[in-house]
């Protein structure tokens, strides 16, 4: 028996730890006190491959361990908790060896350089679930096989793929499955000198950097999978031959490399649907080199039998090892330097790209302003809102009149509406910058700080505006119903307290989407439309319900005010109709702003969207800011009190302009000052601050003064 198999002794000089419970000497091994000798069953004997395996207690696979195993085809080392080192030339000159598999050896820390040396028939090498920290040197394998499969996975301490890591491994095509490792970085020229069929890097969760020149000197890859990694950029060169690109759950990959660099892409499975928008719109007008030698062949594209096979292979999940075989009819060099592995597919490039995920309801393939009239409208509205509210703030701040409660509230209203104006301006600016190619920038914008800031402004401004509007209305109603009891009027300190609470509330609402309750990143308009989690849904519904109840409060208050005025005891009749008209306008604009958005938003929040995001943009651009544009006019600019303030400001400015001499300036300003003093005295009198008796109707009219 032994003499018939002289070459099959494996002199493994290993440390055999005695007394290791559970260790059973394999049937085909002879176990001595400090040595294990195994004779491998060979294929020649009973078609069983040698297995040096299961619970071996060896520490080292030393040099030349397998020397002389000329006919061995497969070496498997697995389930060893003790194996620590593989020495140089451990697998040396094994001319018939085709598969090496080293698995589940968590203590294996070190594989010496040239451990795998001259294995011309090797076409499968698997090193998985080991403790190696340095990329194993596989550059002297020199396989002559036309296809090589390299599995390197679950090596959690493997941190880098160095330069020239694979050169000299094989001359043929390689499928590299490098998934689930701890790889953080792939260096430049890492794949130098290889022809990569397929490169799977998925689940290297720490992989942040693939060097710009990582694919320099390499051919391929045809299939690239960087799913579930942390890369933020794909190399801009070296992806020309990628046919299938997988980057699912790669949330950090916010922009694609220049699309010209992906000239042969057929299929992409990405993380963000806006990238698909960009790819698809680009692919519809990409053109292929006219002089390509394939152009003539492309006419026979559909007739080639292999097409179906190759496509079905590519079409299947990228996880599945690609069955690549070079069709005989295409010699490697028959197409000059374009001898890529899927020639058949290349003929048929006219097919549209398959890309997932497709556009969804939240991210349609369009610019921020979906319609061009919106682009014009959004500029107009934002500038109107900003100038109107800035004007109000300017006049109030420069006013020398006493700060009253309505004036104080009006300042807050103007500020809130200014926020909305700024939000719209930001959106309009980004829209202008990304016009025509928004989908390429969508993710960078939506996940960036700009969008968060804009979204915060919109929610904060919108809610503060609603809150202040309600407060103003309540305050007026309170003042009018308590017209006679001056002591019950709202004091400035009370108003400040109410507004402070409002600020806190609105700041909180604006901040919640930033900290994970809903989010501003869902849509290009940066509004919190994310209702995926119940919490987010609850948040949106609460915000909307608050808005609706605020609207109801405003309506009820105005009705009550109107009734109070209509009261026959109310002396001044002439103002009735004017006030009624003004109130009607106020409620109408409020309603116009609130109702459509609230209606559709509430339906969407309950996950029954009645309109598309594209159409909702019309609502959001045209209706949402109605109040912000109208408020400065309705509550300030059109009121008498404001016009007085503005007149004073104008006078003051006029003074500076008209200054001919210092004396004239002095005289002019003195005059103004006296005038305004007189007026404010008068106002104080009217406002009932003076203890002097004031006629009722005068008092009441003044309460409405801000309204008329
Ligand atoms: C490889 O194996 C074949 C039989 O399968 C044998 O004829 C040949 O000699 C072996 N090659 C070497 C180099 O031992
Ligand atoms: C790439 O590999 C070739 C040989 O295949 C070698 O000459 C060259 O120096 C390598 N490039 C780098 C940058 O290492
Ligand atoms: C393509 O076909 C035309 C004739 O149809 C021929 O003149 C031309 O040389 C061919 N091009 C290549 C690159 O074979």
TrEMBL record:
It is a multi-pass membrane protein. Pfam families: 7tm_1, LRR_5. Residues 388-635 form the G-protein coupled receptors family 1 profile domain. GO terms for molecular function: G protein-coupled peptide receptor activity; luteinizing hormone receptor activity; thyroid-stimulating hormone receptor activity. Its main location: membrane. The keyword Isomerase does not apply. SUPFAM superfamilies: Family A G protein-coupled receptor-like, L domain-like. GO terms for biological process: adenylate cyclase-activating G protein-coupled receptor signaling pathway; hormone-mediated signaling pathway; male gonad development; ovarian follicle development; ovulation cycle process; phospholipase C-activating G protein-coupled receptor signaling pathway. Residues 1-22 form the signal peptide. One of its GO terms (cellular component) is basolateral plasma membrane. Keywords: Cell membrane, Disulfide bond, G-protein coupled receptor, Leucine-rich repeat, Membrane, Receptor, Repeat, Signal, Transducer, Transmembrane, Transmembrane helix. The chain crosses the membrane at residues 376-397, 409-430, 450-469, 490-515, 535-563, 584-606, 618-638. It is found in: Basolateral cell membrane; Cell membrane. Belongs to the G-protein coupled receptor 1 family. FSH/LSH/TSH subfamily. Receptor for the thyroid-stimulating hormone (TSH) or thyrotropin. Also acts as a receptor for the heterodimeric glycoprotein hormone (GPHA2:GPHB5) or thyrostimulin. The activity of this receptor is mediated by G proteins which activate adenylate cyclase. Plays a central role in controlling thyroid cell metabolism. This is Thyrotropin receptor.
